[in-house]
What we know:
Largest sheet: 7 strands, mixed
Radius of gyration: 21 Å
Number of strands: 7
Shape: globular
Number of helices: 10
Structural class: alpha/beta
Order of helices and strands: HHHEEHEHEHEHEHEHH
Amino acid sequence: MLIKIMAAMGAAATALIVFLTDLAHSGLSLLWIVPLLLLGCFIAANVVYAILILIGTELAISLKKPNDNPAKFWRWTLEALSEWLCTWGRVKVECTGLEKLPQGRFLMVCNHRSYFDPIVKIPIFKTVGMTYVSKPSNFRIPIAGKLMHAYGCLSLNRENNREALVTINRAADIISSDRASVCIYPEGTRSTKDELLPFHAGSLKSAQKAGAPVVAVTVYGTDHVGKNFPLHRTYVKVDVSAVIDADYVKSHKTHELAEITQKIIQDKYDEFAKRSRIDA
């Protein structure tokens, strides 16, 4: 998505410059040329910003070095980049239920629809102090992968139980040591249908180990971003659907917690889908 946006902006800036040159030669009034020139400068500035982010991440961030204490600069950079992507991707996010968030750290459990899922959530929960669990291949994505690493995101290899357990323990330690709350996608991959994929029960072990509550969050609409861009705006809903307190988490088995959180999120997702069909 980022590459598409950068390419589109670069092409638009080039086309605009050529267009302005032709207008200037044709003797068009400055009343029109100046605003168009300012628009061209704005687009060019955004292209330069993206290029600088690319160069900065490639030179300054190494995936080989562990990053248990993320620098504020890189956290701010990823948060700003996420907001930038939402703006240029024409994504309008509506968030509800923030008042339900518990005091202190927690494990956030969310459904997975698109690569845009964490992008829309990072700006929303930036004041909470959040990091994310993602599959190893995402850390190889240009710019995004290194920024995720610098942000403190955790790589979870579900194909290797030993590595997965290490990540689960790291997530629990991050929560219990009050460094950040952690967001995980228990489906393990993106669902392409309205029905959520079965939740991996082991994903909730971090909450039990940390003695922390589980926050169920529902995301709706992110899978439409790629289809709508660039002609149409995409409306995304993010809802803090329920909070399962720490005592309940501790006293129940992980497969029970997985079933409960999946039902909570599925019910809310179905509600959003029904409302969307009515509005359409």
